[in-house]
Automatic annotation (TrEMBL):
<dbReference type="InterPro" id="IPR005835">
    <property type="entry name" value="NTP_transferase_dom"/>
</dbReference>
<dbReference type="GO" id="GO:0005976">
    <property type="term" value="P:polysaccharide metabolic process"/>
</dbReference>
<dbReference type="GO" id="GO:0009298">
    <property type="term" value="P:GDP-mannose biosynthetic process"/>
</dbReference>
<dbReference type="InterPro" id="IPR011051">
    <property type="entry name" value="RmlC_Cupin_sf"/>
</dbReference>
<protein>
    <submittedName>
        <fullName>Cupin domain-containing protein</fullName>
    </submittedName>
</protein>
<dbReference type="Pfam" id="PF00483">
    <property type="entry name" value="NTP_transferase"/>
</dbReference>
<dbReference type="InterPro" id="IPR001538">
    <property type="entry name" value="Man6P_isomerase-2_C"/>
</dbReference>
<dbReference type="GO" id="GO:0004475">
    <property type="term" value="F:mannose-1-phosphate guanylyltransferase (GTP) activity"/>
</dbReference>
<dbReference type="Pfam" id="PF01050">
    <property type="entry name" value="MannoseP_isomer"/>
</dbReference>
<dbReference type="InterPro" id="IPR051161">
    <property type="entry name" value="Mannose-6P_isomerase_type2"/>
</dbReference>
<dbReference type="InterPro" id="IPR029044">
    <property type="entry name" value="Nucleotide-diphossugar_trans"/>
</dbReference>
<feature type="domain" description="Nucleotidyl transferase">
    <location>
        <begin position="4"/>
        <end position="268"/>
    </location>
</feature>
<feature type="domain" description="Mannose-6-phosphate isomerase type II C-terminal">
    <location>
        <begin position="339"/>
        <end position="442"/>
    </location>
</feature>
<dbReference type="InterPro" id="IPR014710">
    <property type="entry name" value="RmlC-like_jellyroll"/>
</dbReference>
Length: 454
């Protein structure tokens, strides 16, 4: 069996810590067994390894999240990259063609697709393992997982079992109900309905044949070329609701979607993460602060205060899900990003004159990592090294750098830096357009970069 993890999301529901490049699954707020902080994607990747499933697992994601995945899971994590965001059906279709035509997975092999961010016990992945046998035993088109509801939630979809489901390990699904009102959810629970965990298992030939029927290419390279023409629709609506025979396996352990501040704070490691103070009479309040200034909460209960370079949120917890609606029409560049080499924070962004902008970043490159060898057509840069040591390649010349050094990088100068020890510097960009699209990358690996030094 192969596993495909879907990693998407626009980053609005947990603003300001999440943004378009750092969705909720990348926030390091959960405590692991070593009592260090990890993200949801790191937690699931660790759980897959413990279940013996990691070697068969792939991550389907968009280009904007690629550096974040490499930063948190390592550059050897197998990734299937969407050229643009087009919902879950196109993403799963692309993954299926990748497994079929690039990896060479057999058509009779079972593929299980699951979200990258479920908050579950280890037993959930043992249930994932059982899907293959259940799918084949039942000769079903699709096998899903349903979690035992702990309360009548209006946030989740429900799987309603058929009449003969009682006592069976797996059972046929009669129909689906998407996010009902609480009274209706209670009635569904009384009918033994389960929360839909968003897991789909199928034999690879099932989806490949459906793609053929719909007139889509089944070779990965060809589907990639036509990806923008695929219908922008969820896998549930395009495939699941049209399948003839769908079964579900019951999962009786804890299952949560930590998709809002009020649910996430139920599982975070501490009431204060980062610089902050909460008074003793502030009950069930949380501070998650990524800024270098302290945040203090006095006499306020059941509130979430989240602060990052992208902004500051102060909300009563039960109202916090409204942030997605409030922020949906607000566009801003991410002010904090993790990259495969480290991270950066935007400190200031100013317009000095028509066609003249200044952007200031604080950048950290981890020991042994390097930025790409690149150039810019619309900006120059000034770097001030504030800590650590590194090697700079500037127009094919190798230069040793250390704390206190100032480096000028003119427009169109070819440059890359490698950290010998953890390296931090302030970068001041000046130019007519300061966007990531002005990065012309020539080489990525340090071996390639070092080979061009004269």
């Amino acid at each position: 069996m192969r596993i495909v993890l879907l990693s998407g999301g626009s980053g609005k529901r947990l603003w300001p810590l999440s943004n378009d490049s750092r969705s909720k699954q990348f926030l390091k707020v959960l405590e692991n067994e070593e009592r260090t902080l990890e993200s949801m994607v790191q937690r699931v990747w660790r759980q897959l390894a413990q279940a013996g499933l990691r070697e068969a697992s792939y991550i389907a994601t968009g280009k904007s999240q690629l550096d974040m995945i490499y930063s948190q899971l390592g550059t050897d994590a197998p990734v299937i990259v969407e050229p643009e965001r087009r919902d879950t059906f196109p993403a799963i279709a692309l993954a299926a063609t990748y497994l079929y035509s690039i990896v060479g997975v057999g058509l009779q092999e079972v593929v299980a697709v699951l979200p990258v961010d479920p908050y579950v016990e280890q037993g959930f992945f043992e249930t994932i393992k059982q899907l293959e046998g259940h799918l084949l035993d039942a000769s079903a088109d699709l096998a899903l997982i349903g979690a035992r509801p702990t309360y009548p939630s209006s946030k989740y979809g429900y799987l309603v079992p058929g009449e003969e489901a009682s006592g069976q390990v797996h059972f046929q699904i009669a129909h689906f109900v998407e996010k009902p009102q609480e009274d209706d959810a209670q009635a569904l629970i009384e009918q033994n309905a389960l929360w839909n965990c968003g897991v789909f298992a199928f034999k690879l030939d099932y989806l490949i044949n459906l793609l053929i029927e719909k007139g889509y290419p089944i070779q990965y390279d060809e589907l990639l070329k036509h990806y923008g023409k695929l219908r922008k629709i969820s896998f549930d609506y395009e495939i699941v609701e049209r399948a003839k025979r769908i079964i579900a396996t019951r999962y009786d352990g804890d299952w949560k979607d930590l998709g809002t501040w009020n649910t996430l704070t139920e599982e975070v490691a501490d009431h204060v993460i980062g610089k902050g103070i909460i008074s003793e009479d502030s009950v069930n309040s949380h501070v998650l602060n990524e800024l270098d200034i302290p945040v203090t909460v006095i006499g306020l209960s059941n509130v979430i205060v989240a602060a990052s370079p992208d902004g500051i949120l102060v909300s009563e917890k039960s109202s916090s899900p409204r942030i997605k609606e409030i922020m949906q029409h607000i566009e801003q560049r991410p002010m904090y990003e993790e990259r495969r080499w480290g991270w950066y924070k935007v400190l200031d962004y100013s317009k000095l004159a028509p066609e003249r902008y200044v952007l200031t970043k604080r950048i950290c490159i981890h020991s042994g990592r390097n930025s790409s060898y690149q150039l810019h057509h619309k900006r120059s840069e000034t770097w001030t090294i504030i800590s650590g040591e590194g090697e700079l390649v500037l127009n094919e010349k190798l230069i040793q750098v250390k704390a206190g050094d100032v480096i000028q990088i003119p427009i169109r100068a070819r440059h890359s830096i490698r950290a010998v020890t953890d390296l931090e510097f302030i970068e001041v960009q000046t130019g007519s357009e300061l966007v990531e699209e002005d990065n012309v990358r020539l080489f990525m690996s340090w071996e390639e970069i070092a080979a061009c030094v004269v």
